Request: fold
Amino acid sequence: MGCIHSSTNDGNLLLSNSNIVDQNFPSSSSSSSLTIVEQIEVEKILSAIPQHCRQTIANFPSRQLLNIYQRHFLAKYYIGQENFVCAIAHEYRVAKELEVLMGNDEDHFIYIDIYNVMSKCLMKHNAIPTATQLSRSAMALLLKHTPMDQAAISTQYANLAVIYQVQKDWVNANYCLKEAINTAQKIDQPDHQYIQLLQKNLDLIKEQVVDEIFSTMTLTKVEQKPGETEDQCRRRAMAEIIEFNAEHGTFPFDKFEFTRLPLKETESLVNDQILNDVILKLKTFLTKSPSSESEEFNFIAIEFKHAQMKETSLSPAIIEAALTIIFDQINNEKFSNDEKYASLKQFPYSFSYTHDHFFHQLGVRVFLVKTKSKLSQK
Reply:
């Protein structure tokens, strides 16, 4: 069984250490007849195997099959007792006995649970590369044999994500959690609590990555270069943060949006319905957003879309054009009595935008909202 051989010393030691297996365990070669209860148990074992994989296992001597599974269940029992050395010793014996019976058929469905048990044990003993390999093998077998078992596939992705988190492999951890969530949502009656837990874990990964990025950059990367202004240094730092997040799959936006420049002609595509929708969301944003409690805050179109209009089909460019029209009209005396903008003027803010914000590339349109009291002090 090539998949269970480790490339690490720790993995080899654990996988080959089968001497501690209980010597009183029934011999797999026993040919004694089965009791009725044991016959029922064998039928249960076979029924849990997909139809297209079942015949191979059904051809095994019943006593031998039962003994193999009893040892497998004992391995899982030891995991519950956190006795991972005993667990992997039993599971390794299971794998070796199956290898004799199945020859070179390493892609059989029956190995999925065995690989997962071994992976969990190896994780506990820091044999991470082998644990990762086994979990990935289990995933490949699931996708091959039961591609419609969304629950099992989602769980497998979630387990893989944990392994990648231990390695701080954020790209793969992020990918696996997203796949776990997407797959779980396809189930006819999805477990919303489970999905929320996955989403919470995904959010924690993103927070962890951001913390590490800022920590690393603050200490080593974000240093003002000779001849570089403070604003130039800030822009470079932001560009590096965006690029790092994009590369590691932890950036919730299209990074292009942080360099995209506005086009005047886009405003001609904005109709009254779009204006009304954006105005409504802007009011909500000003009323409920935590940022609105500050004396001054700013955002670009993609950030506004993500915060307030995530479900809309409107592109960030169209939303940007609508916000531009709205901000211009608020500041235009000709529209001082226009109902559409009157309610926005009641907010204690001044609305403007700039193409020279110190945290963004020159030319990118950044919307600024400042309290009027702050403006009056300047």
